Every structure is written in C-alpha cells, then in structure tokens.
C-alpha cells in the first residue's frame, strides 16, 4: 500500500497558512474569506493546492472516475415535486434535466490526496472558522465524506438552491470549455422566496448573475441555500472533476438510506443503523 500523502505538501501553506492559527497571515486570510462570504456567500481560495501537485490530483480523479455512480432525473430549483395548484410559469413548476455522477468516498483510501486534505487536523477547524459555524463536524458517512463529482461533456447542473447551508469543493480538472459556475447571491431569504426574481433568472435574465471560471487547485466555500446557482454545460471531450469535502452540524451524521442509494447506488449497514440520525443535504 502506498504511503499516506502529507497534506502539508499538497496545500499551499505558504499562501494559506491554515496550519498556523497564531500566525498573523492566518488572521488576514480568515478575514478576507469571511469578507467574501459576507459579501455574496462565495469565497475562492485561488491556488489552494500547490501547482506541482495538480497532475497527481488529476490522476487520482481519472483513476477513480470509472467508479462513479450515475443517475438522471428531472428537478426544479427546489428539488421538490410539481404543485399543480400553482400557475405553469411558477419556478416550482419549472423542471430541468439533471445528471449526477459521484465517485463514492470508499474509493479514496489512505493513499488519497483528497482524503489527506480532508483529514488534515487543521483543515476542518479552518473551514469552520471561515464559515463561523458553531457546530461543525466531519461527515461520518463512509460513502460520502470525500467524493468526486464527475460532469461529462454535455452535462452540467440546472439552476437550483441547495438544501444545505454550505459546500466546500476543490476544482480538479475543467472540461475543454463550459462548466462555468454561475450564481445569484441572496436571491431569496429565510422569509421571502422572491419567486418573481427566481423566475426572471430561469427565463434568462443575467443582470444579477455572477460567473466564476474556477481553475484546478482552487478551493471554493459557497453558501448556496439562498443563492440560486448552476453549472453551465461542459463542452469538448474532457470530463470536469470537482472534489467535495462534506461536513455536518452534529457528530455521527450519515446520509439517509434513500438519498444514499440514489447518489451512490448502494448503502452500507451504517446507513440502516443511523436512519434516525441523518442529513438529507444534496451535493452539488
């Protein structure tokens, strides 16, 4: 078995000294990320992974991509069911094709670069501090704590809101073209769904749309519960790879049986055992 990689040789700690919370640069880095999150709910740590590690990270994704579980469905922006009591133009009645392909976490063992980052003792505390979350734990799901999302040419994600508060993702490889991350910050609030503005975006209004061209090695922290967002279709001959690091608000959390089977094509005994302690969060 290959030796476990050292996260300190993968993460660009010179630029992001997340392993040194007493270092002045740590506080400056944290303040900048918090400011971005406070502004529009999205922070990007450019070049989070050292450039010399990108080829090996891509190779890890390429090696595991054949193990991705694929599923296809039609969904609205809220991951809900059709409501025939609403007019046909209502956002809740607008359904789009969505394809998912996720490499389950049990494909990333001790020799995984992604797992090395995720399990670094300073990584989760830094993300928690950036998000200013009071309750924050690594996901306890052996199929979903560290995964890769594979978007094949022609695929993407339609406009949607997340059901979880935040996502933490690492860009690994882009397609030849397309695959742009687009979002409308603060389009809804806990007290106002703002359906008219949502419908305008679905109809093609780009006035409030922000577009990100994420590069391999960029870490993104994104608050997607109130920001409508999508990923434009990937073009060309190469798949888009994005690593996803999962966290939860309570310890011991695993996915529900139904959602786990949908995303990964199988469940493990732990999903049945902890059916009452679960997260129904959707992964982007």
How would you describe this protein?
- By secondary structure, this protein is of the alpha+beta class.
- The protein has a single domain, classed as Jelly Rolls (Sandwich), CATH 2.60.120.
- 23% of the residues lie in helices and 24% in strands.
- The protein has seven helices and 17 strands.
- The protein has helices spanning 24-40, 54-64, 113-119, 123-131, 195-202, 257-264, 269-273; strands spanning 42-45, 69-75, 96-103, 137-138, 146-151, 157-160, 167-173, 177-178, 181-184, 210-212, 219-222, 228-231, 234-235, 240-245, 247-248, 254-255, 278-279.
- It has a seven-stranded antiparallel sheet with strand order 1-11-7-14-5-3-2. It has a four-stranded antiparallel sheet with strand order 6-12-9-10, with no helix packed on it.
- Helix 1 (24-40) packs across helix 4.
- The two termini are 31 Å apart.
- Residues 278-284 have low confidence and may be disordered.
CATH architecture: Sandwich
Main β-sheet description:
7 strands, antiparallel
Number of domains: 1
How much is the average pLDDT? 94
Ends distance: 31 Å
CATH fold description: Jelly Rolls
CATH class: Mainly Beta
Total helix count?
7
The secondary structure category is alpha+beta
Using the alpha-carbon principal axes, give the shape.
Answer: globular
Question: In terms of topology, how is this protein built?
Answer:
Elements: H1 24-40, E1 42-45, H2 54-64, E2 69-75, E3 96-103, H3 113-119, H4 123-131, E4 137-138, E5 146-151, E6 157-160, E7 167-173, E8 177-178, E9 181-184, H5 195-202, E10 210-212, E11 219-222, E12 228-231, E13 234-235, E14 240-245, E15 247-248, E16 254-255, H6 257-264, H7 269-273, E17 278-279
Parallel strand pairs: 16-17
Antiparallel strand pairs: 1-11, 2-3, 3-5, 4-15, 5-14, 6-12, 7-11, 7-14, 8-13, 9-10, 9-12
Helix pairs in contact: 1-4
């Amino acid at each position: 078995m290959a030796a476990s990689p050292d996260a300190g040789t993968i993460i660009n700690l010179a630029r992001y000294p997340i392993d040194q919370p007493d270092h002045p640069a740590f506080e400056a880095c944290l303040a900048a990320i918090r400011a971005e999150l406070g502004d529009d709910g999205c922070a990007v740590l450019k070049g989070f992974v050292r450039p010399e590690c990108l080829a090996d990270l891509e190779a890890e994704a390429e090696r595991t991509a054949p193990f991705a579980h694929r599923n296809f469905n039609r969904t609205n922006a809220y991951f809900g069911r059709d409501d025939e009591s609403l007019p046909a133009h209502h956002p809740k009645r607008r359904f789009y094709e969505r394809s998912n392909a996720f490499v389950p976490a049990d494909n990333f063992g001790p020799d995984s670069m992604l797992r090395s980052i995720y399990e670094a003792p300073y990584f989760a505390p830094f993300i928690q501090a950036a998000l200013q979350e009071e309750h924050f734990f690594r996901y306890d799901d052996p199929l979903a704590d560290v995964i890769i999302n594979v978007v094949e040419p022609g695929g993407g994600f339609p406009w949607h809101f997340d059901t979880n508060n935040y996502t933490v993702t690492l860009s690994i490889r882009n397609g030849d073209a397309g695959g742009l991350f687009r979002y409308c910050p603060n389009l809804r609030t806990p007290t106002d769904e703002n359906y008219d503005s949502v419908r305008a975006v679905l109809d093609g209004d780009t006035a409030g749309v922000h577009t990100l061209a994420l590069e391999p090695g960029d870490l993104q922290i994104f608050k997607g519960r109130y920001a409508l967002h999508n990923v434009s279709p990937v073009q060309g001959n190469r798949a888009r790879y994005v690593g996803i690091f999962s966290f939860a608000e309570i310890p011991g959390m695993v996915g529900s049986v139904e959602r786990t089977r949908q995303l990964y094509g199988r469940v493990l005994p732990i999903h049945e055992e902890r059916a009452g302690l679960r997260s129904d969060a959707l992964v982007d």
